[in-house]
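Hey, I'm writing a tutorial for new members on how sequence and structure tokens pair up, and I'd like a real worked example in the thread rather than a made-up one. If someone can provide the structure for the chain below, I'll link this post from the tutorial.
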Amino acid sequence: MKRLFTTILLLFGILPLYAQHINSIVDLNLAEEIMQDTQYEHYVWAVGYGSDLTAADNMAMQNLSSIDLSLVTVHTGQTTNEEINREAARTKEVDEMKFVGSAMMYLENVHRIDLSNQTNKKDNQKYNYMVLRYVTADEWSKRYDSMKVKIENYISSAEIFSSVVDRLRCYTWAYALLKHYHGPAITVEGVAADQFAISQITNLLDGIKVNVIGIEKVDTDKNYPYKLFLDFTFEGEPLSNITFSYFDGNGIIDGESVKDGRSLLMMKKLGDTLKISIDSYMEDQARQQDPGIYACIQELRLSGALTGSNKEVDMQPKGVKQQKVVDTNSTKVVSQVAQSLKNNEAQYGKTTAATNTEVYSAIMDKIVASFTNKEEDIQSMFTPRGWSDYSKIVKEGNPVVARTPQWKFVKLDTLVICRELPVKLKFASSRKSFIEDVVFRINERTKKIESVAYKLGQSTESSIMAKDWREVDRLTLITFLEDYRSAYCLRDIAYINKVFSNDAYIIVGKVLQKSTKKFNDKTELIDSDGKAVYTRYSKQQYVENLSRSFRSKEFVNVRFEECEVCSGYGAKSGIYAVQVRQLYTSNNYADEGILTLAIDMRDEVNPLVRVRVWQQERDVNYTAEQMMDRTVSTEGSFSHNQ
């Protein structure tokens, strides 16, 4: 039998006749001899070559996964010039790929044979490594099944999520998969899935508005003499948890972030317009969560398919003037974000405002001044614990004031809480930056700062403040969640060890049936017959695992969204159940999931986490209220029923 030059492959329901390949025949003498053996006749195969084994293997997998059914022809003899030209063009296209193919992530039981040190007879070039990859035709025929499931899941999830960023991510990842999908047709509302996804992506990107609301001239900074204060909104509401890159007048800066609609950019030069690019691909998240998605996104990004993510913003729109110091809270500054945050702050009208705030304002002004005047001695204003927390923020995050501070002081028992100092954190060896609000708790008697923490996001805080609870209960729960979140961000294992009860019920749940309802929906949830399966850890196991994880990280950022809370009554009075969507980001790991906590606040000075459940998806049978129902609490005892 003559060696086959073009692809021979299983044709829609017909049994495989021969092995196949997509590389030039002159490179494949040995590979063809192996694959023409009768024991390999029902396999699909391809080869790759390179200067090292990894490069050769990657090319082989890329070649294997890139076979296009439109190029498939069954041959029993010579090939035509048209086929040769078509195959040569395809081979060139494959050779230009610099990353591992995406469809390979959905191929199972792929075998490998090392054919290193084979000679390319076409141009006499010696490749150090050559790899043969092959898979059964049966496995090959199933390779799109899991892709189809993922595509449909991402599209359905996008329709459920209320967050603009989540919807954008799901549609983009579905679209990236669809660009590599050649299985049975997928439609949404009678429209081809790829057309539906790209239309949704375009609408979301077009709905994101970016505005420069202030420019500050920094005479002391020769490298970045300008600060730009930006608003990010979608349909008039502040946008959060999205990242972007921008041109700073000299080069592209990656990894910028937005919180509650606010961002701060450092500029080398000012121009007529500011060029930014929204991270609609969310590659970092994909790389750490799903390598298959990541490979698809890589190719989609290189093709420049989502041009709507690029935006040009007027650098100095009407009313925005370059100043040495800009007041971003000025009534002259048109800011939808500032107005939204102001409306949110109105909820604090329910709380007791501190009196005689001049002394507290002076403390905070001195802290702000220390950002630029490094010799300013402020340690004496802190207790040892407060200074430890603050030092970690300053040492690791290199904070810069992100907006004009507008001090608000709320009284909680013996503490005066300063809300809040907006800062931008930039980590030394990472591309990532974060906008955060830092809260300071000041002892009313000593006037020393007892603790420092990262403030919760606007939506999470609003969910708690809207509850018809006692003032002290709302503020105490918010304070606890701020400390809990900050402990992970600051990798404070001592605090985490202290705050979990010794008999804490710590569970990681497997993927469970998802609800089609949003967190804040009050209508009846869809019932599920599925059983939740949990893995339980002791406090010691959990803390030891977390400690090892923290040691490998330069930074950790934890954010809470979509908060649902409830309080116990009767024997459970003083117990709170909190369920949030947790977004976890670090320099070497990222995930998101549903975190549910049972917090025992009967001793307000020493609150304890009694139950911690993390699930990859939301379980319709495990809401905050259902957690409370499963919690059994009596004086001197506490238990949790699965």
